């Protein structure tokens, strides 16, 4: 197979990431190509999101340095080297920014993860120095401050100086990338950046569900969804009682369904399963099910047993839904909380992050 063709396949794989619709569309093309190349590429198809064990190794290689293994396709070896070179440029600029910083330093893993999600697999990654500087500046705010300065004659005057303040809110960072750097990251790229950040910094996969969102305080993934005047949920009180029976049970995505472990979508799935209603297995897919089966309701029509969906951050899933809970009436909700580490009964929270309400029938 020609190198140019192999490179085209690699870039298509990276762009597709975990998008099932894209892969459905290109499956027939891949099937017609040389099997050894397909096998080599398939090992790295979600490398931009740090998904598989192979991809974790590639992410760490780009972040931590070292030579690519012989088994890695030549195109990917080139992309990793390009990332390493670009990260060196960013490190030099971040060194200068750190010298101006008061308080917490800029998270270099985050800066590089966003860069990785935007440029891994691109034909030309190496930017001009000014472009790297403009990119890095999107992760800090520059503030002018004053301080006392003693002069040679002993007098004290006020002098101005500039400090860099690290930005913690990821939503603001992506807004600055669009306004100041001129690159608008898609939700998929934002999701990939978070995935790469978790792999590079913590060597673990990013959680796809949960109500922890402190660094996405400005995020609002709401969209326009039609709502329906559905009949009352006759099973609502039973659903709430079932949910309350799990209060205090521990939260775990990895262990959900074993022992007493639950996560947010398993709690809702389990409750409705007890009354003979089957729901999909993730919060996002439960939300999709509500929309596709005309089971959405308005917030002001919520009744006990209805489902409430939140979008706390981009995760690349349907409507970027990250959390689901069961409305318990009187402004309360029962949900398996990532941030609390267990199933809780609490006031209905984060109005600005609620994106969907459903009434399973």
TrEMBL record:
UniProt EC number: 3.4.-.-
Keyword terms: Hydrolase, Membrane, Protease, Thiol protease, Transmembrane, Transmembrane helix
Entry's Gene Ontology molecular function annotations: cysteine-type peptidase activity
Listed transmembrane segments: 25-47
Domain NlpC/P60 residues, every copy: 233-361
Domain of life of the source: Bacteria
Family annotation (Gene3D superfamilies): endopeptidase domain like (from Nostoc punctiforme)
InterPro entries: NLP_P60_dom, Papain-like_cys_pep_sf, Peptidase_C40
One GO biological process term: proteolysis
Keyword Transmembrane helix: yes
Signal peptide: none
Pfam families, per the entry: NLPC_P60
PANTHER family: MUREIN DD-ENDOPEPTIDASE MEPH-RELATED (PTHR47053)
Similarity annotation: Belongs to the peptidase C40 family.
Name by which UniProt lists this protein: Endopeptidase
Organism taxonomic ancestry: Bacteria, Bacillati, Bacillota, Clostridia, Lachnospirales
């Amino acid at each position: 197979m020609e190198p140019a063709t192999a490179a085209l396949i690699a870039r298509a794989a990276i762009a597709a990431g975990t998008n099932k619709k894209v892969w459905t569309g290109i499956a027939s093309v891949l099937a017609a190509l040389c099997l050894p190349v397909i096998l080599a590429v398939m090992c790295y198809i979600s490398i931009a999101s740090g998904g598989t064990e192979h991809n974790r190794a590639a992410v760490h290689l780009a972040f931590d340095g070292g030579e690519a293994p012989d088994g890695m396709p030549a195109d990917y070896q080139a992309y990793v080297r390009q990332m390493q070179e670009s990260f060196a440029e960013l490190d030099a600029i971040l060194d200068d920014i750190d010298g101006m910083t008061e308080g917490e330093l800029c998270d270099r893993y985050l800066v590089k993860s966003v860069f990785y999600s935007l440029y891994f697999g691109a034909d030309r990654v190496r930017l001009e120095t000014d472009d790297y500087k403009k990119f890095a500046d999107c992760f800090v705010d520059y503030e002018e401050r004053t301080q006392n300065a003693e002069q040679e004659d002993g007098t004290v005057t006020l002098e101005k100086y500039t400090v860099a303040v690290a930005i913690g809110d990821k939503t603001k960072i992506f807004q600055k990338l669009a306004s100041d750097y001129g690159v608008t990251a898609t939700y998929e790229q934002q999701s990939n950046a978070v995935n790469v950040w978790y792999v590079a910094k913590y060597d673990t996969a990013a959680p796809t569900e949960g109500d922890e969102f402190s660094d996405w305080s400005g995020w609002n993934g709401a969209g326009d969804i039609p709502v329906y005047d559905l009949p009352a949920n006759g099973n609502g009180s039973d659903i709430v009682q079932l949910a309350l029976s799990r209060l205090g049970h521990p939260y775990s995505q990895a262990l959900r369904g074993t022992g007493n472990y639950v996560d947010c979508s398993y709690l809702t799935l389990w409750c409705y399963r007890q009354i003979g209603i089957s729901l999909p297995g993730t919060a996002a897919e439960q939300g999709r099910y509500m929309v596709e089966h005309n089971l959405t309701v308005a917030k002001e029509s919520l009744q006990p047993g209805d489902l409430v969906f939140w979008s706390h951050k981009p995760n690349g899933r349907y409507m970027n839904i990250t959390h689901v809970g069961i409305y318990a009436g009187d402004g309360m909700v029962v949900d398996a909380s990532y941030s609390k580490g267990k199933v809780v009964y609490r006031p209905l929270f984060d109005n600005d992050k609620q994106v969907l309400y459903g009434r399973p029938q």
